[in-house]
Amino acid sequence: MGVAAVVGIDIGTSSSKGVLVDLDGRVVRSATREHEVDRPRPGWVEMDAEIWWQEFVDLAQELLAPGDAHVVAVGVSGMGPCVLLTDDAGTPLRPAILYGVDVRSTPQIARLNERFGADEIMRRCGSALSTQAAGAKIAWVADAEPELFQSARRVFMPSSWLGFKLTDQYVLDQHSASQCTPLYDTDNRDWYRPWATQIAPDLVLPPLHWPGDVAGRVTAEAASVTGLPAGVPVIVGTIDAWSEAISVGAQGVGDLMLMYGTTMFLIHTVPTRLASPSLWGTVGALPGTRNLAGGMATSGAITAWLRELFGSPDYPQLLRLAELSGPGARGLLMLPYFAGERTPILDPDARGILAGLTVSHTRGDLYRAALEATGLGVRHNIETMEAAGGDIGRIVAVGGGTQGKLWTQIVSDITGRVQLIPSQTIGASYGAAFLAARTVRDVSIDEWNPIKEVREPRPEYAADYDELYGLYRQLYDGSKPVLHVLTARQTRLSAEPQPAALEEPCSEGVTP
Fold first, then answer.
1. Three-state secondary-structure class, residue 28
2. Least buried of 31, 74, 227, 512, by fewest C-beta within 10 Å?
3. Which residues pair with 347 in a beta bridge?
4. Cα–chain center distance at 273
């Protein structure tokens, strides 16, 4: 029968990841499927939900193929908050609209603020309306695609979609619901029906449970497709960043999780409800917990973009070049707002800037500037959290960006904060596996995933980075009007017919 183990699978922005973990926390096997999101227009980010299920099936089959483990529970998580609308049978009606990187709902945000009152939304929901809010995205579909919306009966996120496909149960976790502003009442921890019925009168909102609760059990049909045993429990699951925080034990009051991924995410656990117009006040992933959270729209997405522009060298090479560049990237400063920005500026029309560029700058300088831009954004978020009443005592880092020492070191140098790096930084899939294991055994994340490294800030760089941070804040404030005009031009141009690509080859000896 093999070793008793759990499966954890996460649907992320750029890939889906799965782990097979024994009940002592050891990773038996891992697997990944890379994918791309669709960007049909500037500011729109979508994905076909059938890809989520197919990648889950592929990952499960790969993890279980050797037959050396007996699966006793299944964990799921996924990017979010997303909006996948389906009919009553759960058949998707359109591609899912992704989280705050999709900024199409700006008009709906303005209208809902006017209808319900921005202050009242903040009071009842814990967060201001922003492009992160799933409720505003639902309102966009109602406005832009009314015929389709008339057929919509259910709403899913990646984790709840996987749970539905595995168990035939329609449920959502409390944390994900708390990011469905303005549909959720954060004090009562339930849907706020008076507003929900105005925004989506025909949607049947799912029953709410905690991420570690059992959503249901693997059906015979799902077992035949995935290779998972029929009848084993499947947890409700949650949004990937919160599963990442679980994976490294960053759930105590005062803890802050930094997630180094395609986007950067920050989750601070607070003793009582805190609210900030520049952050997201949410229900936590564990019963009784509260969070102040922030998220940058791009971080690893910028480094991946630069890598492609540079001809796809490997990341270790780029990190070596960035380290040679040194603090300050030889006079470069980047704004990381390449897909607008979420917290703390909440500006979907912001755009990226690379300032100070000369012909003498190198790939290493540009790559270093991108890493430093993330650190500067993290510092801005941390200062905003503490200004809102947060008290950060411990920072735990997780995600693919922790694999090389340089990026985490830069963030510690810029913020002046110590970061703890655990043994397993796989992230959300490992957190989902841990929650699944808790359904069959009393397990501890501190035993599963102890701290392995400590990243200390280097005081000799503090003055330089303080100056750079001041310039970072000035650069956005000073360039904001220009960036908004450029964003409007991009939107207008994207709606115009594009010229056909040149089909004739260039003349010999002429470089295109």
1. strand
2. 512
3. 341
4. 22
Length of the chain: 512
- At 446-482, the pLDDT tens digits run 999 999 999 999 999 999 999 999 999 999 999 999 9
CA–CA dist 207, 322 (Å, integer): 48
Helix (H, G, I), strand (E, B) or coil at 38: strand
Q: How many CB atoms lie within 10 A of CB 216?
A: 17
DSSP 404-422: SHHHHHHHHHHHT--EEEE
Q: Contact, 52 vs 15, CB < 8 A?
A: no
Report which residue type is found at 154.
Answer: R
Say if residue 92 is preceded by a cis peptide, omega within 30 of 0. Answer: no
Q: Look at phi and psi of residue 329 and say left if phi exceeds 0, alpha if psi is from -120 to 50, else beta.
A: left
Q: What's the pLDDT tens digit per position in 54-106?
A: 999 999 999 999 999 999 999 999 999 999 999 999 999 999 999 988 999 99
Contact present, 74 and 226 (Cβ < 8 Å): no
E runs forming strands in 331-438? 333-335, 353-355, 394-398, 419-422
Q: How large is the greatest C-alpha to C-alpha distance in the chain, in angstroms?
A: 71
DSSP 440-475: TS---HHHHS-EEEEE---GGGHHHHHHHHHHHHHH
**In 3D, which of 237, 43, 247 has the Cα closest to residue 157?**
237
pLDDT, tens digit, for every residue of 265-283? Answer: 999 999 999 989 999 999 9
pLDDT for residue 238? 98
Angle between helices 118-125 and 106-116 (to 10 degrees): 90
Give the domains, in start order, of the chain with CATH numbers. Answer: 3-241 (3.30.420.40), 249-423+458-465 (3.30.420.40)
Phi/psi of residue 94, each to 5°?
A: -165, 165
Q: Tens digits of per-residue pLDDT, 5-63?
A: 999 999 999 999 999 999 999 999 999 999 999 999 988 999 999 999 999 999 999 99
Cα 49 to its chain centre, rounded Å, is: 16
